[in-house]
């Protein structure tokens, strides 16, 4: 039975949103709805226009026999700025200040709506690049990695500081923790990353950049390639940072333990 | 400017999918599209029918002044069975067998499409219950918790075995690891769970049930309430399990280190 346009639009929208960055051949939809390819093309035109009007993403059409349609999630700079400004306010809340000048983030990194938006913002930065995997370090980086992975539709891998028997053989590197200058160790399951993979590194917080630098080392050990680095928040570190090319959504500029004030501004994400 | 039906359908579908389990008043959509409430009602009827036909979920309409529409993600038993059967096959792959009879899962727990489906399957079990938070233990439970949290649209909290300075004050419990009979400790940031919260516990793997039992203890310490327990996989443990009420998607029935065979069947999820 033929499916009506209105129903096709609802189902196709859902299908496209759940399969971002994936080439879907037109015959797939034609068969799914028992409809002519010309009708499917018209539907896709409507969806394309709506996504574009609402700044939700690009619907790329690839012509030819091997062609099809591909949904690339996007977010406008204006929308991203609104979200980042809201996050600045939330991060500046007095009660987030922990002993030692640390900032409490765990509640934010457990909110699904916030994570979805953060995933959209970070993924948008890399939408035109080929990425095979998202890498992060346990534990607090995981929600960020998963959120980005959902948008780019590529797997994420978790680097650990403690080896577990359930990871099988691992490859490990030593790295210097940028802020404390201690030597630490991190490892990744050997089978989790293929040689030549193009890797995006994400993390929740960057101080001296030691952890991110460790991940760079691991990527080299795996003979993989680093595509970029984006962290949820960075702190305005006075010393020498071991990482120079990265993006951050937020920047904790100053923490005053006396007056319990945290000053947070947008990070380097919007820099041209 | 008025927005046409076709465009409304695309945008509403997207909006509803990104806001599951959330009551959205009709005037919100009427304003968003500059359209009459009667048109919006008709749109919602189309979306409701399509979601229902495709077994994608229920669109609940609540009449009256305080009413609106709420999308409740679902998955049919048939669809869930197909996914679980596929997972049984993947889990039985010979090269997953690790020394000590452990099964390698980390790759599966990093695949966005699989996680999305696992989230849908687990969330569907609790769709009629009030849930305030999803709880899991670091590290491998996190992807499951986040996937479920996306579907239920409630936050997730991460219990840790190692205390971190970035968690602030914590509440800790001791628990007996079911399989090794050792006493271990786990803790949760004090501010992460409110008194009286209704909590769903999820984890990647359950052997003796000690870890899950530890989380039950923590829930009591927080004066919160346990709604249910679902694990991605359980192993057919021969000893006495310390947990009796739970669901599992998969059950590792037998592991033969000699012949390198892993036998996996669907878990208790489908039991009536």
CATH class descriptor name of the largest domain in chain A: Alpha Beta
Give average pLDDT of chain A, whole number: 94
Spatial strand order of the main sheet of chain A: 6-5-9-10-11-12
> What is the straight-line distance between the termini of chain A?
52 Å
Largest sheet of chain A, if any? 6 strands, mixed
What is the quaternary state of this protein?
homodimer
Largest interface: chains, residues each: A-B, 59 and 59 residues
CATH architecture of the largest domain in chain A: 3-Layer(aba) Sandwich
Helix content of chain A: 25-40%
GO molecular function (chains A, B): DNA binding
Subunit structure (chains A, B): Homodimer.
InterPro entries (chains A, B): PRTase-like, PRTase_dom, Pur/Pyrimidine_PRTase, PuR_N, PurR_Bsub, TR_Rrf2-type_CS, WH-like_DNA-bd_sf, WH_DNA-bd_sf
Family (chains A, B): Belongs to the purine/pyrimidine phosphoribosyltransferase family. PurR subfamily.
Notes on the protein architecture:
Two copies of one chain form a homodimer. With 272 residues, the first copy, chain A, is α/β, with parallel strands linked by helices. Chain A folds into two domains: 5-73, Arc Repressor Mutant, subunit A; 77-270, Rossmann fold. Chain A has helices at 5-18, 26-33, 37-53, 77-91, 112-125, 142-152, 210-221, and strands at residues 57-62, 68-73, 97-98, 102-103, 133-137, 156-159, 170-176, 183-189, 198-206, 225-235, 247-256, 261-266. In chain A, the strands form four sheets. A six-stranded mixed beta sheet of chain A has the order 6-5-9-10-11-12, sandwiched between helices. In chain A, helix 2 crosses helix 3 (37-53). The longest helix of chain A is centred in the first third of the chain and has 17 residues, at 37-53. Chain A is globular. Chains A and B meet through helix 1, helix 3, strand 4, helix 5 and helix 6 of A and helix 1, helix 3, strand 4, helix 5 and helix 6 of B.
